[in-house]
Structures are given as C-alpha cells and as structure tokens.
Amino acid sequence: MVRKQHPLALLSLIVLVSFPLASVGGQSADAKYQEGRQAYKAEKYGQAMQILKPLAESSHAVSQYYVGRMHEKGLGVPKDETKALEWYKLAAEAGNSRAQYKVGAAYAHGVGGLEKNETEAGKWFMKAAEQGSRKAAKVVAKGYKKGIYGLPKDKKKAKFWLKKSEK
User: Fold this and answer.
1) What confidence score (pLDDT) does residue 27 get?
2) What CATH number is given for 96-167 in this structure?
3) Which terminus in the chain has less CB density within 10 A, N or C?
4) What is the C-alpha separation between 83 and 72, in angstroms, rounded?
5) How far, in Å, CA of 47 to CA of 31, rounded?
6) Is 23 helix (H, G, I), strand (E, B) or coil?
7) What's the pLDDT band for 8 if we cut at 50, 70, 90?
8) pLDDT band at 167, cuts 50/70/90?
9) Does the fold of domain 96-167 match that of domain 27-94?
C-alpha cells in the first residue's frame, strides 16, 4: 500500500533543513554578533572581523556597520573608505541609524569615492534622525537653520530637531 504524504510534512522537512541557516557555526546570529562585538571592544579587531564579516555577508545590519567601521578606521584591516562606505550603505539600507548617519556624512563631505551631494546627505541624515539618532538630529537642525543638506530654511523645524538632539 502506498501512503500519500501530507503537504505539511514536506513543508516541515523544508523548515527543519533550512533552520540551521539561521545560525552561524552552531550559534544564533545574535550570539555570534555578541562574540564579535566583545572581540571588537577588547580591541581584537582581526578576531572581530573574522566573526562579524560572515554575519555581515548574510545581511546582519549591525555587523555590516561594524565591518564598515573597521574598514573606515583601519582596525584589523587596511584602512579603506570605499569598502567602509559599501558596508555602511548595506547597513543603512537595512535601517541601521548609525550607518545612515555615516552615509549622510560621506555624501556631505565627498568621502569613499562619492561626489559631494548635500541633498543625498540630508536624506540619510533625516532617516537616522527619525530613528532617534541625536547626532543626526543635530545635523538636521543645522540643515533647517541654514538651508543646507537639501532642507529649506525653517526655524520651527530647526528648533524641533535641536530639541530632539538634546534628549
């Protein structure tokens, strides 16, 4: 007698087979990130890069930020602003506010092979500020106060963002 497989049985098998992909080396991505972050804090940058880069390559936004930072500062790897910006952009697009600030700064100053673009800078500063970045809120306030970063002069909005930057 031939038994029919239930459609959910196949789905369960797929889930069981793919579940280990959510971990790296038997640890969850968050646990592995914590290990990499500890290495970073201990200034063991080579070890931090070995742990965080695979996470960054698998779209872990905070790890992407730290890989970018290590490239920007030359920590455990040769200093490379272009590579730093590539990692920052990935993290920024995934919603990391610190990376969004860094991308904004890169556009504001023409860093990492970018041409200066105040409007693009303002877009990224605003994204970071809207997520609670006080540093970005201060820049947005300045943008509204002076009419820079693609933002119109607006005293009310400048005051609003300045207050946000102080909280």
Assistant:
1) 76
2) 1.25.40.10
3) N
4) 8
5) 15
6) strand
7) very low
8) confident
9) yes
Whether pTM exceeds 0.85 = no
Report the alpha-carbon distance of residue 144 to residue 160 in Å, rounded: 10
The CATH fold assigned to 27-94 is: 1.25.40
> What DSSP character marks residue 77?
S
Report d(CA 112, CA 126) in Å as an integer. Answer: 20
Residue 148 has pLDDT above 70, yes or no: yes
Burial (0-12, 13-18, 19+ Cβ within 10 Å), 48: buried
CA distances from 143 to 20, 91, 162, 164 (A): 46, 24, 11, 14
Quick one: tokens of 109? Answer: 């100053």
From residue 47, how far is each of 9, 42, 58, 67, 114 by CA, in Å?
Answer: 41, 10, 18, 12, 30
Where exactly are the structural domains of the chain?
27-94, 96-167
